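> forwarded from #structure-qc
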């Protein structure tokens, strides 16, 4: 059973609930192991209240040598990547639900009431605001020319980066029942890629919003609306000319970024995005299974149930390992060749929801309570 909060839309009403089952198995107990590697914390900073009381997934963003992060109450900070030293901090009056995007000289955040707020990367001063159709649960993204926002009602909106005026809008039909949240759109120079609650991926012209191709990754099946949920809720991963995407109760797929042509598909169910590295694609499944697939053929390389039902973050490749966080705040390092447990550190007692972020030999982890830390391998 899905243990996340769901949004159920009926006519004009929106009802929020969480699925549960008395028969649901408990999270797997963490087994002892002989650590092969240890993580050394380089610095740590607190970013307000962190994820807050709602099921937010506020994720830090890197742009150059600066790391940007935000909390649910509207605090936004810019930190030096290597030291964690604060460059600036602003406190917005609006609670945030979609954060953080960065690029084109701007820091981009979204709110529950559908506002997109942009700040100057240099000093945090506000540049402009724009109103969109519904709450923004994923960080807005930009290619330096257009800011793209995906809203909770499954619309994609292109805003002019200089003033926030709307350039285009793409609308899709929202299913009756969806997982709360959205994947972040991927924006390159020419195209915008987005995963939809219908189980489809769409590529739009970044300049005009005109659809370039559409591809279904998952087909709704089953008799109930719960069984038919196939949301693409995790961020899409663009690696060269291949787009990797995974849906809930559907598939993980590799698509040709130019045409949308499926290169391969493999059965999977996940509400967080895939990771990639070492010629492999990594998936944190909804049931806590972590698996690695060959990036060229989808052949399963390994799978582990050691973290079953531990509500995992998206996996990321780091050094020779795969890093993934869980609901108790542990960060796990798995061997990239076989999935063995190689290292572990507890980062935040309130849990980890945001995917770890890596650059070079640094691994950044943002805990649910608001603690943001940088680690290196010892």
């Amino acid at each position: 059973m899905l243990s996340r909060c769901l949004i159920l839309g009926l006519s004009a009403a929106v009802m929020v609930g969480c699925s549960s089952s008395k028969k649901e198995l408990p999270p797997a107990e963490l087994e002892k192991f002989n650590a092969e590697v240890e993580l050394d914390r380089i610095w740590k900073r607190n970013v307000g209240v962190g994820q807050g009381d709602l099921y937010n997934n506020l994720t830090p963003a890197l742009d150059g040598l600066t790391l940007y992060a935000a909390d649910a109450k509207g605090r936004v900070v810019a930190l030096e990547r290597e030291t964690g030293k604060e460059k600036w901090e602003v406190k917005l009056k609006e609670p945030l639900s979609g954060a953080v995007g960065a690029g084109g000289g701007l820091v981009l955040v979204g709110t529950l009431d559908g506002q997109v707020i942009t700040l100057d990367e240099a000093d945090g001063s506000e540049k402009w605001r724009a109103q969109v159709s519904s709450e923004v649960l994923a960080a807005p993204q930009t290619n330096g020319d257009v800011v793209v926002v995906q809203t909770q009602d499954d619309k994609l909106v292109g805003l002019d980066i200089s003033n926030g005026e709307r350039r285009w809008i793409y609308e899709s039909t929202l299913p009756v029942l969806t997982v709360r949240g959205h994947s972040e759109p991927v924006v390159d120079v020419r195209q915008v890629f987005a995963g939809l609650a219908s189980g489809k991926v769409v590529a739009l012209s970044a300049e005009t919003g005109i659809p370039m191709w559409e591809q279904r990754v998952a087909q709704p099946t089953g008799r109930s609306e719960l069984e038919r949920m196939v949301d693409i809720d995790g961020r899409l991963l663009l690696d060269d000319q291949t787009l990797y995407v995974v849906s809930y109760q559907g598939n993980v797929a590799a698509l040709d970024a130019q045409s949308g042509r499926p290169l391969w598909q493999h059965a999977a169910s996940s509400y967080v995005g895939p990771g990639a590295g070492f010629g492999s694609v990594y998936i944190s499944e909804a049931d806590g299974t972590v698996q690695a697939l060959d990036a060229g053929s989808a052949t399963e390389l390994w799978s582990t149930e050691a973290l079953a039902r531990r509500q995992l973050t998206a996996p990321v490749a780091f050094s020779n390992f795969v890093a993934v966080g869980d609901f108790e705040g542990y960060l796990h390092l798995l061997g990239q060749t076989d999935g063995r447990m190689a290292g572990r550190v507890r980062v935040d007692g309130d849990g980890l929801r945001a995917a770890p972020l890596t650059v070079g030999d640094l691994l950044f982890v943002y805990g649910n309570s608001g603690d943001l830390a940088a680690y290196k391998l010892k």
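QC bot note: The chain has no helices and 35 strands. Residues 282 and 292 are 5 Å apart (CA to CA).
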